[in-house]
Amino acid sequence: SQQPRERVIEAARTLGYAAPAFEALHPPLPAFGGPAFEGLDGVIGFAVDQLATSPEAVVAIEGARQASWNAGNVLLVAQTLGDAVMEPRAISALTKRGISALIYMTIFTREITAPDYLYGLDIPVILLNCYTADYAFPAVVPSEIAGGQSSTRHLISHGHRRIATITGEPWMQAAQDRLKGYRRALATADIPFDGELVVEGDWSASAGYAATVKLLALKD
User: Fold this and answer.
1) Considering the entire predicted model, what is its pTM?
2) Which domains does the chain have, with CATH numbers?
């Protein structure tokens, strides 16, 4: 019944669970095209290269979904795998379904060479987690350098001087930029950089554990 359902939802909120953890307790929305969808402002397309293997993409899509629904829009999602043949077909399919704007996302933070068909679209295009050298499109990217710098600076402010970091794969821009921020914070505090305190990981929990064990085994 409705009353027990609301008590469960309230208990979940009290325990700190986010909305997705208990949204399933609400009745499902009617099928697309019913009265619940009357008066929607538009449809937004979301194209991402990797979805099935990336939790980051799921989180980004959920954020876009929430913002879209709050504005009365529907979000349509397509996984492209960055395929040179299928990606333009997927985006074409989205545009033919009347999307009023397109979010174009890559899993890895990086500079991209935008395909010609993006330039040819007559709707707004927003890049997510990527950018172009010509800055032809608005782009939303994480501030990796600032993140590495501020986290290291925080530890320094608490009196720590021998600070280690576990990076991602060195070929990834996110890993490179976080390391830059780490080194900037050390330099600003006149703390010499020690390469022994930098251990490469691969973003996985197991690699993080192995790197931590390696760092803890170092002599003081």
Assistant:
1) 0.66
2) 1-38 (no CATH), 41-140 (3.40.50.2300), 144-216 (3.40.50.2300)
